[in-house]
Amino acid sequence: MARIWLVPAAAVLLLVSSCSGRSAAPEPTTTTAVPAGSALVVKIDNVAAARPQTGLTMADVVYVEPVEGGLTRIAAVYLGKLPPVIGPVRSARETDIDLLGQYGRPTLACSGSAPQLAPLLRNAGMETGCQSAVPTAYFRDSSRQSPHDLFVHPDKLPKGAGTVTPEQTGPAPAGGTPVTKQHEQVASVGFDFEWSDQKWLISMDGSPLTTTDGGRVGAATVVVEKVTTRAGTVPGDAAGNPSPVGVTVGSGPATVFRDGKSFQATWSRPSRTDATIFADAAGNAVPVADGPLWILLAPVS
């Protein structure tokens, strides 16, 4: 079973706001690592103007979340080595509250959130490394336009707490359907995956996904997790447009892509502090392969 074991989270104060200052990017610091048993989660911009991103190839797990206006945002989870710089960093969303409960008390790096979201994040017990709490960890890249210009030095962020065990990996299950190319849709964003050189090469909206520091982005496993959505309780953007909340507690259909094959599965998760489990129709585990894992939270159409 693909899972991440968790510990209950304790409440901490989350301060969130945005900074409008601009400065040239400082020289990157050296690569560091997340302390054993903790996680860093960075909310990364994913609109066309934000690409290419930085630091994405070193993420252990990448979630693609639907947000307002048919757009998507990335929650990049780092459990091991950290790149010197990650970004562009954007704001938290209500989906993060349940989704990130799988990681104990992660450090959450974000540019801010709607004021109404702060108490919800605080009650969820998340540690924070957001901009207002640790302003010295962030900088603005003068070569990019706001709001796609905010980046973070992850080694300057506070450390998360709790015990995190990475998802279970193992050999591919028996069977599966051979596939070398796959198209998936999350809101209005198109994703394409091509099996090449033992990994899934990722494209978005018809263009190869690359990063400024790691070249072409690929994944060992891609999971399309079908989720229902509900209306958010807080505004999703500055104009007050609501952001859909992906429901990640419960169960639903999923497809696991690994080793050049697809495997039909069901995802299940009893509560926000439980691991997400992927299993086939007979209840047998569908483990993921070693390497980067991408999970698309695809709204049920």
From TrEMBL:
<dbReference type="InterPro" id="IPR021416">
    <property type="entry name" value="DUF3048_N"/>
</dbReference>
<dbReference type="Pfam" id="PF11258">
    <property type="entry name" value="DUF3048"/>
</dbReference>
<dbReference type="InterPro" id="IPR023158">
    <property type="entry name" value="YerB-like_sf"/>
</dbReference>
<keyword id="KW-0732">Signal</keyword>
<feature type="signal peptide">
    <location>
        <begin position="1"/>
        <end position="24"/>
    </location>
</feature>
<dbReference type="Pfam" id="PF17479">
    <property type="entry name" value="DUF3048_C"/>
</dbReference>
<feature type="domain" description="DUF3048">
    <location>
        <begin position="33"/>
        <end position="161"/>
    </location>
</feature>
<feature type="domain" description="DUF3048">
    <location>
        <begin position="187"/>
        <end position="295"/>
    </location>
</feature>
<dbReference type="InterPro" id="IPR035328">
    <property type="entry name" value="DUF3048_C"/>
</dbReference>
<feature type="region of interest" description="Disordered">
    <location>
        <begin position="156"/>
        <end position="179"/>
    </location>
</feature>
<protein>
    <recommendedName>
        <fullName>DUF3048 family protein</fullName>
    </recommendedName>
</protein>
